[in-house]
Amino acid sequence: MIKVIESPIQGCFEIKNRRFEDERGLFIKTFHQPTFEKFGLHTDFPEEYYSTSKKGVIRGMHFQLPPYDHVKMVYCTSGEVMDVVVDLRKGSPTFGKHAVFELSSKKANMVYIPKGMAHGFCALEDDTIMHYKQSTVYAPDHDAGVLWSSVGVDWAVEKPILSARDMSFDAFDMFDSPFSVEVVHE
C-alpha cells in the first residue's frame, strides 16, 4: 500500500511506496492513480526525465514559470539524495520555507511537489539516479530557478559540484514570485 504523508509545506507530500523484496531482487510500484486521486493529487504526467549525479552534486533550485508551471513528482532509484522543496507561493503560510526529505532506492519513497515550489537536491552517493514526472512539458523560455545557497538550507557539502546555470540564479530574496495561493477568509 502507498502511504501519503503531509510535509511541513501545504500541498507537498512524501509518498512511501511498498517494497516487494525476495531472492530475485526488488519490486516497487511508483504510481497508483486511485491512491493519488483519493488524496486529490494530480495524476496526468505528460513528461518524465531522469538524471545521474556524482556524490556532492547539487541540482536546483528549479521550477517553471506560469503558464507552464507544473506539479512534479521525484524519486530516487539508485543512491541517496537530500531532496529540498521551497514554497514560492505568495500568501502561503509557508512562503519562503523549505522541507527536506531523504530519498533513496532503499527507502522507495518520493516527493509530490505542487505548483509554485522550487525543487533541488544534493546527491549523497556516486551514481545517484533521480526520476522526475512533470504535469507540463518542458518550456525553455519559462525555465527558472533561485540560487541554491539562498534558501536557508544546510546542504552539508563542503565543496558542492554545481552547474554554471544553477550558480547564476538570483537569490531568493531578489526573486519576485509570480506564484500565489488563494487566501480563504472566514
Walk me through the topology.
Elements: E1 3-6, E2 13-16, E3 19-22, E4 25-28, H1 33-38, E5 47-53, E6 58-64, E7 72-78, E8 80-87, E9 98-104, E10 109-113, E11 117-123, E12 128-134, E13 143-145, H2 164-168
Antiparallel strand pairs: 1-2, 2-10, 3-4, 5-12, 6-11, 6-13, 7-10, 7-12, 8-9, 8-11
Describe the structure.
The protein is mostly beta strands and about 190 residues long. The strands form 3 sheets. The protein has a 6-stranded antiparallel beta sheet, with no helix packed on it. A 5-stranded antiparallel beta sheet has the order 9-8-11-6-13, with no helix packed on it. It has a domain at about 45-105 and about 115-175: Jelly Rolls, CATH 2.60.120. It contains 2 helices and 13 strands, in the order ββββαβββββββββα. The mean pLDDT is about 95.
State the strand order across the main sheet: 1-2-10-7-12-5
**Which residue ranges are poorly predicted, with pLDDT under 50 across at least 5 consecutive positions?**
none
Looking at the overall shape, the CATH architecture of the domain at 44-107 and 115-174 is Sandwich
Rounded radius of gyration (Å): 16 Å
Query: What is the helix/strand order?
Result: EEEEHEEEEEEEEEH
> Structural class, from helix and strand content?
mainly beta
Number of strands: 13
Query: Could you report the average pLDDT, rounded to the nearest whole number?
Result: 94
Shape: globular
Sheet bearing the most strands, described? 6 strands, antiparallel
Count of alpha/pi helices: 2
